[in-house]
Amino acid sequence: MYLMETPRPLSRTKVEYRPPLSVSIMCRHCAEAECVEACKNGTLTRNETTGRIELNQDKCLGCWMCIMACPYGAISQFRAGSGKEERPVANKCDLCPDRETPACVTVCPNRALVFEDRG
Questions:
Q1: Where would you tag: which of 15, 102, 115, 119 has the fewest CB atoms within 10 A of its CB?
Q2: Tell me: the pLDDT tens digits for 43-68?
Q3: 15, 23 in Cβ contact below 8 A?
Q4: CA distance 70 to 48
Q5: What per-residue confidence (pLDDT) applies to 15?
Q6: Which domains are delineated in the chain?
Q7: Peptide bond connecting 97 to the previous residue in cis, omega within 30 degrees of 0
Q8: 3-state secondary structure of 101
């Protein structure tokens, strides 16, 4: 279970609670990704093989243009590094490329999230 993992994985999704409902806010990996268009230094790119929008935090300047451009509010600020090396970078869902099914889908208690390839 993910709550038992050490170190705990970085959350790349948000859940908005509006009782009695809760809504998962995550990257939709849009066909025409406004965040990629807004990112001028190549931090956000589309993987031509998988179609996923990938974020390279090493390139991120913390300008937040991607955050402003995302119509879903799926990109957030994150503090990467530690100590003097800590800096603000963007953070978003990467569809867990090292897993067959994204972690959020696996651990969703209500099974409300599904993972489908619609490409």
A1: 119
A2: 999 999 989 999 999 999 999 999 99
A3: yes
A4: 20
A5: 81
A6: 2-96 (3.30.70.20)
A7: no
A8: coil
Amino acid at 9: P
DSSP letters, 12-63, are --EEEEETTEEEEE-----TT-HHHHH-SSSSEEE-TTT--EEE-TTT----
Amino acid at the residue 79 = R
Task: Give CA–CA dist 27/70, Å, rounded.
Answer: 9
DSSP state of 110: T
| pLDDT confidence of residue 4 | 66
- For residue 76 the two structure tokens come to 């957030």
Ranges of the chain whose pLDDT falls below 50 = 1
CA dihedral 33, 60, 11, 95 (to 10 degrees): 40
Tell me how far apart the 2 most distant CA atoms of the chain are, in Å. 43
Q: Indicate the DSSP class of residue 90.
A: E
